[in-house]
Amino acid sequence: MTKNIKNRSVVAALPIMVCLTLPLVQVANIAYLYDLAMLFSVLRLGFPRIRDARDKQFVVSIVILLAAVAVGTVSGILRAGDLVRQSQYAIQYFAAIIFALSLYLNILSGRVDSRTIVRLVSIAAMVLGAFAVLHYFLMTMSRPVGEALYLAYLKIAGFSDHFFTERYLRAVDLTGVVRATGTWDVATTFGGIMSLAIAWSYLVPISPRLRLVVSVLGAIAILASNSRHAWVILFIIFVLMVPAQNRLRRLLFSIVCVIGLVVSVNVLSSQSDAGTLNLFDQMGERFSRTFEQGLADSSIQLRYVDGTLRFLTYSIRDPSVLLFGIGVGTDKALFESMGAFEYAAYTLKNDHFGFVSNGWLLIWRNWGVLGFLGLVGIFWSISRTGGAKVFPALLVAGLIVAADNYAVHVARCFFLVLAYLAMVAGLAGLSPTSVPGYRRGIKFMNFQRIASN
Question: Where exactly are the structural domains of the chain?
Fold first, then answer.
């Protein structure tokens, strides 16, 4: 690997690492740190040309997604009249999509080293998991220190003291449950993003020690997040994405490490006088709720029943949303222009504009049919190129999109999901011998032999 390839690989990984690990700091009220890293990365990497028509299917889906954002943004501006806010949102989403395109083209052209990128992202995942575990441990063992740590993070990220006391502390006091959040402000979002970060470490062969540390720290953080969809995704990663070579031995070793550390954390948290449940108790409460309520569970109802019905009802009332979408940020713009009381009555009358906590439907609601087709096209193009070998990686991303609204509705999460898909797409289009390490005798494992079809 030449020095230029290594340098470009570091530049390619930089925005992902910044997005995973650093607070959401806004610079000059215009862009976030990871936005600036994306800009630098795209300018440095560029857009190499590709010739294979099969590889262009991903590019076509990206172009459709860009058109969808443009159409949805115009629709949102016409509905709410907030040109500045919705243009800012559009720029963030445009940047995420353009970065994914640049990353994909650079992987295919061999201008970056996929193993270096995955290794760096895995290190960032390790940092994210370690911070989440530390925060959880402090909140259960030394709550004042844990509160001070998280409050300091929230202030750096631009959150108010009111958010900390009314949303975070109040939930802990009422339930006794401390949910790990890492460098995020919502535990459900953190759980999904942490599982995505772990999945990165299984895309190509990297150091087994690094992968083990990422998996163990990430698994404990995900369990402590109390996010059930992240638990499911973690299970899928360990079952389907662990390399086939010595899979049983590797899987058992990882599970033993996770169990050992979880038991240790549970024993320590059981000795706490902070008025919080220990790890096993809060996980047990979550499992009990799941098995006792089943499909009647409020979270399932809100995401997949009530939300879907809202989307369908509003689509019948306003069919234009199916074509053009409502845009991202339209709800917030209307809230600020109308005020809380008038907005509440207006949204209730209009079925909350079809808002649904299911990313596959939400992208249709936000950006119209082009948004839905663009996202489906990305998954379809990757599966067509990589075949069955890419199924586990796509399943992880697909479940994250379906699990809640954050993968589509939060630009930061949308960027991470698209970057992951761009990496999978790029690897799917490579021949085995074009991946560094193959000629050195490293056997491609499980779906990592994606190009051998």
Answer: 1-112+313-337+356-389+405-453, 116-296
